Amino acid sequence: MRKVMVYKRFERFWHWSQALLVLALAVTGFQIRYGCTLISFEETILYHKILAWAFVILIIFAAFWHFTTGEWRQYIPMPKQTGAMVRFYMKGIFKGEPHPVKKTELSKLNPLQRLAYLGLKLLVIPVLVTSGFLYYYYNQWSVIGLDGMTLAPIATIHTLAAFALIAFMFAHIYLTTTGHTVTSNMKAMITGWEALEDESAPPAPAAPQED
Ligand code: HEM
């Protein structure tokens, strides 16, 4: 094994600020939908809007970082290895089998993570942000020719996308515990460093067979 800087400083900042913003947007959003018990309705809406703008600014910086550093390539799907990864998560993981796809600095995300994150970036988050801004600018809908529409379907789409994002977060947190140790992935996202298998090292000798 060798210690590698897997997650750069900006990446860690972006990851944790995004996590906090989504959590705070979920708390304020579900308060708006299901009743405000923490603070007043008006304050909740105000905080949701401020957090939403912060989220959009973070998305813009993160997109810029991904494109200028080439890190966007981490999300290119790996269709040939996806089946092996699904089998691993359904069976192999419970038998302690090794991960079928090795993590490296150049390929940090396994094929399923690539698909899940791509789905989030290209579908769930754009739907959340677009429906959120349509909601936000409800009074100006006539400008974009939406004057006949009601708010209800937009609120439903926004809420469904919010549930999808929260469901992703639960699955994501569970999967972070399936690294070398329960906390190794979490620690890597805090410090940046992770112990990865040394690709240049000769393969370990096979374990003696027991009869
Ligand atoms: C840029 C991103 C976002 C924008 C612009 C946005 C905007 C809005 C707006 C304007 C409202 C209506 C507030 C009102 O009643 O006046 C709202 C409601 C809501 N938001 Fe967001 N939001 C965003 C992200 C999120 C996220 C990330 C979540 C959760 C993970 C979320 C969950 C909700 C929920 C559940 C509601 C209540 C929907 C309803 O009224 O039925 N929002 N949002």
Please provide a brief summary of the model.
This protein has helices at about 10-35, 40-70, 80-90, 110-135, 150-175, 185-190; strands at about 1-5, 195.
Structural commentary:
There is one protein chain. This protein has one domain: Up-down Bundle (Fumarate Reductase Cytochrome B subunit), CATH 1.20.950.20. The protein is elongated. It has six helices and two strands; from the N terminus they run E-H-H-H-H-H-H-E. Helix 1 packs across helix 5. It has 211 residues and is mainly alpha-helical. The model is unreliable at 204-211 (pLDDT under 50). The structure holds protoporphyrin IX containing FE.
Overall CATH class: Mainly Alpha
What's the gyration radius in Å? 21 Å
Strand order of the largest sheet: 1-2
Task: Report strand %.
Answer: under 5%
Reported CATH architecture: Up-down Bundle
Strands, helices and their partners?
Elements: E1 2-5, H1 9-34, H2 41-69, H3 79-90, H4 111-136, H5 152-176, H6 184-191, E2 193-196
Antiparallel strand pairs: 1-2
Helix pairs in contact: 1-2, 1-5, 4-5
This protein binds protoporphyrin IX containing FE (HEM).
Residues 22, 25-26, 29-30, 32-33, 45, 48, 52, 55-56, 128-129, 132-133, 135-136, 155, 158-159, 162, 165-166 line the site of protoporphyrin IX containing FE.
